[in-house]
């Protein structure tokens, strides 16, 4: 892995994705074709990425930031996101990316925990940050990508700073263990945890972009993931650009018409998307697809949630393409188990392990399960893209490892031929449309609504989203559940956390079932909602 | 007050942005927080405010705020 990737011990991701590509003769090659929602194109060569990220590294250095400081991007899909990310890594900062639909509480949890010193955002998002600024004592500067002039001593214009910054920057030698990218992930209890990676992750991101996504030197690649999530950085930035591959990035949202125009007009060779998006596309009439020329597209890859066999069969039948499901987590940093070209696809399977990765199915006591038996999906520790820690939460990090194995929190089984098959989660974390959502965070937001006394949140099976968020609320007397209150509840969650955390359904209950120590019994809520056996109820409070 | 003017405070509340100024041409691409999930909040808010109900097909074919305003006006009659 990566035998020609690391030159003179330089592991810096920002350097590898820009300068190293220029030195390899790709300075004039298009690194990114940026396509606006109105389908206008703007090209950035690898030389442009190199100069722009150098300028941004100089901007951050000029603000007094240096190795190990924490910087966040809080932007929708836009070119500045990429220059800021790569520039921050060049300076050896830790770069976190925040999903652009995060609300105030979600931002506070992440930026506050990390102790970030600088955030780059846009004017439209400033209100959210200003509202929590007094609770972020370490935040020194907010940079605005769309402010032509500085707004205050600590709210600065990105265009102005970039115009004054040099395009020359020498990336310091960066060791493999130097901290790099930070993504927050949700658990079933407590606040989101900051998953910290090191620059060595590029080894697996590069190798899997080549071997699993099957990216080739002259390919054009499109990854639809938002840069706020791990797929958006590992495969929307690092993997492809470390190979010198051209990427298309689209600023618009889901649109069958625009998406298929992009695939056709940009002659995209490999497309990486999510099962929910593919399932939404299945709703379009067959005739719709007949109008597009997809001859450049070799295959589709999928990530985020289990890919149901129907999607694989649909893509073969309607698009004439294979869909390869891939599996990884924020903590793994890169694809660990996957279907891929050259390996027979077993529809519904996660595929087989990536070279050098050793998964296992283990019982709770660590005993290895036989083929066909379900258990904890684990990975032999020390894979090159393994996360470094959960920021400020060493005990949570330690709790994920036992006897040399990382417990992923997913359950699965392995067939006799070494294919892995996803079963579910071993905790209450909800996977909706590929986003992992903490029921605890939603419950905390729900009880902030004055009318709500108690709340319990579950993930319920959904044909489109894999799981949907269902919230159960009991109200203070004398409030009654009305459509107006339901809207109020929904808006509160959307604006405090994010749209992806918003309950699809809010169900009023007299009381929320809890055990004798006061813990919400989500298992019971789920069983009642699904009409299944609730199992052992001996711990239920009176 | 026009339907468009009545829709403006609804959009501002749903997307938590007092700065939203609607035109008939406004689309989801013009409002950062407007995605498929927050769209459900918007539709619920519009239905409650104007006491109308939308069918799924009607929502899928709407291309901009102007078409939403026209649909509200038609259903309010």
If you had to describe this structure to a student in words, what would you say it looks like?
The complex is a heterodimer of chains A (542) and B (77). Chain A has 542 residues and is of the alpha/beta class. In chain A, 50% of the residues are buried. In chain A, the strands form five sheets. In chain A, strands 2-1-11-10-12-13-14-15-16 form a nine-stranded mixed sheet. In chain A, strands 7-6-5-3-4-8-9-19 form an eight-stranded mixed sheet, sandwiched between helices. Chain A has two domains: 13-409, ANL, N-terminal domain (Rossmann fold, 3-Layer(aba) Sandwich); 430-530, GMP Synthetase, Chain A, domain 3. Chain A is 30% helix and 24% strand. Chain A is globular, with a radius of gyration of 23 Å. Chain B has 77 residues and is mainly α. Chain B has helices at 3-14, 36-50, 56-61, 65-76. The mean pLDDT of chain B is 90. The radius of gyration of chain B is 11 Å and the shape is globular. Chain B has one domain (3-76): ACP-like (Non-ribosomal Peptide Synthetase Peptidyl Carrier Protein, Chain A), CATH 1.10.1200. Chain B contains four helices and no strands. Chain B is 58% helix and 0% strand. The chains are: A alpha/beta (542), B mainly alpha (77). The interface between A and B is medium-sized, with 26 and 18 residues.
Structure characteristics:
heterodimer, A: 542 residues, alpha/beta, Rossmann fold, GMP Synthetase, Chain A, domain 3, 2 domains, 9-stranded mixed beta sheet, 17 helices, B: 4 helices, 0% strand
